[in-house]
Amino acid sequence: METPKWLSLLPEALLLLSLPIMLIVKYFRESQTAKTFYTLAKVFLVLSLVSGLIFYDFNGYPHWLMNNQYTILFKLIIGLLSMAWFFLSLKWFLNKDEDSAAFYALSMVSLTLLFLLISAQNLILVGTIGVMLMGCNFLMLRLNPKTDEETFLPRRRYLVFSLFFAAVLILGCVMLYQEVGSLSYEYISAFLAKGQINAKLLAAIVCIIASLLYLAALAPFHFWMTDVIGTAILPVGGFLSIIPAFAFFGCLADLLFNVFMPLKASLQPLLTGFAVLSVVLGALSANNENNIRRLFSYAGLYNLGLVYLCLVGLNDNSLLSAFVYLLVYILSLSGIYTVFFGFKAKGDYLTDLPDISGIAADKPYISAAFLVFMISLIGSPPLLGFLGILSLANNLVLQGSYILLAVVLVSLLLVANAYLRVIQTVYFEDCNEEFDRVDNGIYICLFINLIIVIVSLLNPGYLLHDAEKILFTIF
Amino acid sequence: MSNILSLLSTIIILPFIGMIFALMAKDDEETSNHNVYNVGIFTVIVNLVLIWRVFWIINTSAPGLQLTETFSWLETPKIEIIFGIDVFSLLMIAAVHLAFLIAMTGVRNSPEQPKSMMVFALMFLGSMTGLFIAADIFSFYIFFEAMLLPLYMLIGKFGDIKKPVSLYRFFLYNLLGAVIMFVAVIMIFNIQSGMELSKVRALPMQETLQYFIWGAVFVSFLSRIPIWPFHYWISAVASGVKNPLVFVAVNLLPLTGVYGFVRFLPEVLPEVASFYILILEVISVITMLFIALIALINKDFQYKMFAYVTVYYIMYLLGVLSRADLILYNIGFSCFSFLIIVSALEVMSQYIYIRQENQGTSTPEGLLCKTPRLSFLYSFFILAAVGLPLSSLFMNNFLLLADLLSFNLRMGLMVVFSLILLAGTLLGSLYRLRDASKYDAEQTEAEDISPTLFALSLLVVFILLMSFIRPLWFVVGE
Amino acid sequence: MIFSTFIYLIAAGLFVLMLPPIKYERTASLGIFVILAALFANYAAHALSGYSHTFVYPWIEYKDFLVTVDLSSNFYNYNFITPVFLVILLAAFSNIFYPFEGKRLRLAALMMLNLAAFILLICSQNTLQLLISSCALGVIGFYVVNDFEARQKYVYFNLLADMGMFTAFAILYGCLGTTSLADLARFKEADAYQNFVPLLLLFSVFIKSGLFLFQNMLLEWRNINFNRLALASFALVPITSLAILSKVSVVLQYSTLAGPLMLFFAVVSMFWGFFGALSQDNIRSKALYLNMMSFGFFFGLLSTVPGQIEDNYPFLLPAFYLINISLSLVNIAASNETEVSRMGGFIRTLKYSFLITLIIVFADIQILTNIIGPKNQYWVWTFLILQLLALAQIYREIYFTQIRADERVWALLHNSNIFSAAMMAAFAAWLIYKTPADFVRTGCVFGAFVLFMMIAPFRNFSSFYENEELQSGEWLNRIYENLLIAPIKILGRILWLTVDFLFIERTILSSLSHFTEISVTFAKRLQSYGWLSYLLWGVGGLGLMLWLVMNGGLGE
User: Which of B76, B146, B190 sits opposite A381 (nearest CB)?
Assistant: First the structure.
């Protein structure tokens, strides 16, 4: 019997299925807590991942979606990270006694869209998902119970500019369709290979890439991310920083490598320039920031810049390097966000640097983990971050881009300087506040993350090589 | 990783295991925070025993690295981690461990958070050990940079740094050096098929690339040694540290630079490089004089110690640059005594600071009066530090200076002059401490060091004397 | 034999040094003297019988770096060790009775170690053993010189001298590739630093022996007691340096400058010592200047007739030591009064002491006249006359002239321990007996000495006693301070201020951190989270992207 085509959409369908269930529970079940929705989200996410693993290379609609070992790897990473993040977010909702239904529901929608984006083989899909993601993000940002001006304005700005970039994205797609006659990757790639390139086509591609860069929050379209991170609630801020990165990376890599490759000469310098801009801007801005979430958001910009700097080499080696760097970066960043759950006093999650001064004396293990992840983010051995910077630097040396390497290293020093300020505050200053007890779950998450960091360093083979092998041996 | 429990890797891992135990050590009023110290000291002692064992196993007169162990680390790019050892690096490890052991005894009663101190100290020690055992460029680099973080934490937490900015600069400066080294390592990696450290010295490469790589390597190692005009970053931090453990750790940093030169200095110098070496030598000598002169006018004992340490390291560097085999072993032995003396002196001066604080005096004059045990030890270590025939330093200095003087008389004389200035400075400070006329008899009766510590210190004295009488006395059938 | 003596001395010395303070120090010191005497008797018996034995221990054998420890018994070594042994013996003896000694036992232990170190020095056959023993003697000297100020100078001068010697030997090893003293003869072949190394060695030795310009270390010893002063002068650093010089004299031969320089310093020191002995009020200073004269004399002897000093040296040293003792007797008798200007007329009470002094002077004359030979006659005569003139003036001021002592001193004036003094006289007599005599010549010279005492041709020098500047000896300190130390310190301060502070901190670091600050602020301004910033980045970025791709893309 032939396998039904729709089965290839099973993971996404399962994710979406959680929505009506959550709705039913929300309105018809009486005893419900934050944990109820977490459990639902968890169950459906697991089911989705399992089904994804089972049908990892099953392609029901090859012109729209493509599943292979790479897409499942990305989805798996996103799924596992989401699972951990859901767990941590639960602590926030329990602590704040807030309703978690909206957060988990929106996260499930967002995840569905990200899963689709990873597999997308058609720009119609990409455009639609992009626009929906912007909307989804906006709804997530609205979850903040505060209604003051400071919280409200960034959200509104985000909405306005998201609308603008959604328009740009749609415009790009329409223009491209007018030129090529189809938005399927395969057609576009074949069309571009013929070399019939005109200004309109280029403008269309620029519009599409710019919108995707806006979603990925890469300079010069990074502004919204640092703005909203400062005001979003912790679960949302963390979700936006950690989870989508892989999906955008996968999507952009797919587009650059498989679709826009013929335009390499035009796009490469541009993207390199943007990557460098991200690196420099991130490194510089991190130095003048007292809000730790924003600080790490800038540091994130720097790191993402490095990832894309690797990627725009547009060869196999650069792709692998970028992937390794991204993985290492996301692992460390998720550690940092886990630590944020531990920075708590009088029931409030602390966001300002002076508030956490001297916390090391009171919370040595949390601070130690913070330190480890920060150093890992700098890329200093013997922590995992070194692996990322190693693959990046090796790639740049292979490409002969010594000037880029120099820029990267100077920026690294700048970022290190920003982190030193944090370390100084956390470790060397006097403790002037009573901090709340930290939930054991957070310690467990930190511990697991640290183990991954350490094991990955001792035997990094599995990250770079074995992950692929494992997939092939299972199936 | 078939040979995971081999001796060298165990020696590297042990401090890290100790670190984990220190992290888990439970301390309260009852144990008066001694548990974590005991963990630290026990770790170092066990590692010393292992190191001693290695001395027995290796052939002390054979050239090249021995007991090599290879681990496959990364597939793409293909990187193997290799460990190996020779007498020189083994001596360094032994010296570093002994120095740490001595310094640890000095902080036993320190009121500050002992746990983090021990954890970072052991982490630093592990990285330091790793650096000396590393036999490939990657592990060399990993340990070269890895030691910066624990060091930074040690200084930041326990170094009494008044201006955080100077600490930032110190770290960033060292990080810059490490980063430059990183670039060089990757470039070397992309040229060479294997990555053994032993092959680096004879690496064939293009001329321009050669300049770039060797330039980067030299700059990165120099970033560790307080050479003019970059001594400032290091001196601003190192001279302010009062905690003996931290001081020892900070002042081990230049050793990594000197050691780097030992391992990386090309066997056959390219022609233009010899010009750079000459410049380096000139700058080194100027730095020596400069620092010795400043030490002469600076009243702070820690600065004097910093100057002492720096001048010696620069002398070792000059010795290394002369690239004679005999000199290299000589430097190894010299370092052995030198590090022990420095850490012992630091521990002693810590006691003097405590006395000074207890007595509430602003100047340390006369503080050694009425404390015969402390006075004896302090005098011994100062005299040994000055280079009297009390440790192998005397003989090592003789050979080193003979080499430097015959290499270039003027340079050698400047080195001698710096040593004289320093010796004068140290003796002067000893002198003031023993100045009975300044001793305020009305002050509370001073507390001498405990008999236990005195006995331990006598052991150190014995080790130093033995290093003078028989440099390799602890190895049977040398 | 020398080896066993060395071992006994080390063992006994260390043992006594480690003893806790005991009650009967005087008796214990007597015990130590007996031990030393027994060792000397054994030593002398062997030396006289010409016993020889070779002891060479290979200490370090590493490639071409070979160092041995030599403690062989032979004629040369006996010849050098005997005088110091005698001096130590005398010092150990006077240590029993000397009233102003606080740590008798410790001093005795130091004496034994001193002798042991000196034996090591004399027996050395390589530069390293020489250096080590010299350093050891330096350290022992530090403990013998138990005054704070004196120690300070001692340490610095000795350090300088030792480092000089160290450097010279390091250069010799560097160019000869050997540490053996016997191989120093090859120095000429090495054809390098023919003047530098000898001069460096000479200056080190000059500093150690406190010759003119370097006398500061020596003169500070006026603050330590007489027994220690005499010991330090004749068994420690100055004598050590002489021994070292004679051991490496072969190196000096190749230098054209060494001989004249040595002679010059010898002459100047001798005359300066003479002037000092007359013009200083402090009796210990007088003794020290007399000693300085003697060291000048030794250097003169070495420069005129290299071989001479070895043959006649054994008795010279004890004779000069006894002259110190003769002054010490007065000091003890006058209850530790040090100013000669407050003595005078002591002959009324100190008849015995004066008699002993005369015997000592006679012995001194006997020994000095005995070494006169055709090559050194002018030199010895000059020294002898200067010394006698100085001594005559000093003794005259002490024993004759009018009474200037204060009442307490005068009332307490007494002959020092008669037994001890008699022993010293007996020793002087033994020296006279052992020296091949030309009594007529000695008698004549002694007559001249008595005549000098009566005429006192330099009596006007006592007017210098009033001169504060000269008495304190500060002028030389000031010269050192202003010409050497101050410039170095000023240089250090200037370097620190200009390079560290102005150049690095204020220029490089400031500009770097300002640049970073400006960049950071600029970046911050550009992203001020406002509508304008959104527009700038979002729309501007998109526009820029379009413009770049259009231009670049279409240009292809």
Answer: B146
Flag if B290 and C493 touch (Cβ within 8 Å): no
Q: Which residues of C touch B296 (CB under 8 A)?
A: 488-489, 492
B111 touches chain A (CB under 8 A): no
Query: Hey, are the CB atoms on C538 and A161 less than 8 Å from each other?
Result: yes
Q: Is B186 on the interface with A (CB under 8 A)?
A: yes
Instruction: List pLDDT tens digits, range A190-221.
Output: 888 887 778 888 889 889 999 999 989 888 88
A230 and A351 Cβ atoms separated by less than 8 Å: yes
Instruction: Give the whole-angstrom CA distance, residue C366 versus residue C429.
Output: 10
Q: Domain boundaries in chain B?
A: 272-478
Token readout for C139 is 């350290």
**What is residue B55's predicted lDDT score, i.e. its pLDDT?**
85
For the stretch A368-402, pLDDT in tens is 899 988 988 888 887 788 888 888 888 888 888 88
B158 close to A (CB below 8 A):
no
The C-alpha atoms of residue B246 and residue B154 are separated, in whole angstroms, by 6
Return the axis-axis angle of helices B231-238 and B301-322, rounded to nearest 10°.
Answer: 140
| pLDDT, position C308 | 52
pLDDT score for B478: 43
Is the confidence at residue C312, as pLDDT, over 70? no
Q: Token pair 């006997």 is at which residue?
A: C366
Q: What is the mean pLDDT of residues B289-299?
A: 84
**B14 neighbors B122 (Cβ within 8 angstroms):** no
C199 contacts C189 by C-beta, under 8 angstroms: no
Statement: residue B472 has pLDDT above 80: no
Q: Is the Cβ pair B190, A320 closer than 8 Å?
A: no
pLDDT at site B477: 47
Cα–Cα distance measured from residue C58 to residue A135, given in angstroms and rounded to the nearest whole number: 89
Please state, in angstroms and rounded to a whole number, the distance separating the CA atoms of residues A308 and A330: 14
Nearest to C491 among B293, B326, B424 (CB): B293
Query: What's the rounded mean pLDDT across residues C190-201?
Result: 81
For residue B173, is it left (φ>0), alpha (ψ between -120 and 50) or beta? Answer: alpha
Q: Which strand (E) or helix (H) includes residue C68?
A: strand C65-70
CB atoms within 10 A of CB B1: 13
8 Å CB contact of C509 and B169: yes
Residues of chain B in Cβ contact (below 8 Å) with chain C: 165, 169, 228-229, 232, 235, 290, 293-294, 296-298, 326, 329, 383, 386-389, 394-395, 397-399, 401-403, 405-407, 409, 412-413, 416, 419-421, 423-424, 427, 431, 435-437, 471
Chain A residues with CB-CB distance to B148 below 8 A:
380
Q: Which residue of B has its CA nearest to A375?
A: B149
ipTM: 0.87
Comparing A201 with B110, which gets the higher pLDDT?
A201
Q: Residue B29: its pLDDT value, please?
A: 64
CA distance B76 to chain A (A): 8
B80, containing H or E segment? strand B79-85
Q: What is the nearest CA distance from C68 to chain A, expressed in angstroms?
A: 49
Distances (CA, A) of C15 to B101, B461, C20, C110: 31, 18, 10, 11
- A443 or C305, greater pLDDT: A443
Touching B (3+ Cβ pairs <8 A), the chains are A, C
Residue A412: pLDDT over 50: yes
Burial class (CB in 10 A: 0-12, 13-18, 19+), C548: middle
User: How far is it, in rounded angstroms, from Cα A452 to Cα A446?
Assistant: 10
CB C446 within 8 A of CB C392: no
pLDDT at A254: 87
**C492 interface with A at CB cutoff 8 Å:** no
Mutate to test the interface with C, among A196, A205, A266 (most CBs of C within 10 A): A266
